[in-house]
Specification:
A six-stranded mixed beta sheet has the order 2-10-9-4-5-6, with no helix packed on it. It has a four-stranded antiparallel beta sheet with strand order 1-3-8-7, with no helix packed on it. It is built from no helices and ten strands. By secondary structure, it is mainly beta.
């Protein structure tokens, strides 16, 4: 399975970005898919996920600001990020929440300036 995250960039605090994650080699609708981020010097953390049934879950730090969605036909998962904060800076990855996860792709870097 290959994961290709894109859409990151440099944005000012309060701005928005939309990340995309294209998945090849498997079908996203049968898996719980998650967006993770790794801030500089920190461990990778789960930010949000969407279950096979479409239920979404969010870390408290992003609740109300981020929104995960998916396009099953395109086999792509999205992360809409609004009201971005400097603490949202990091490399964002998508992956399934299966155990073990698929091999991690390169991620997409998000930098939020104050």
């Amino acid at each position: 399975v290959q994961l290709q995250a894109s859409g990151g960039g440099l944005v000012q605090a309060g701005g928005s970005l939309r990340l995309s994650c294209g998945v090849s080699g498997s079908i996203i609708k049968i898996w719980t898919m998650g967006w993770y981020r790794q801030a500089p010097g920190k461990q990778r953390e789960l930010v949000t996920d969407i279950t096979s049934g479409g239920t979404t879950n969010y870390a408290d730090s992003v609740k109300g600001r981020f929104s995960i969605s998916r396009d099953i036909a395109k086999n792509t998962v999205y992360l809409q990020m609004n009201s971005l904060r400097p603490k949202d800076t990091g490399v964002y990855y998508c992956n399934s929440m299966r155990s073990p996860p698929w091999s991690w792709g390169p991620g997409t870097e998000v930098t939020v300036s104050s």
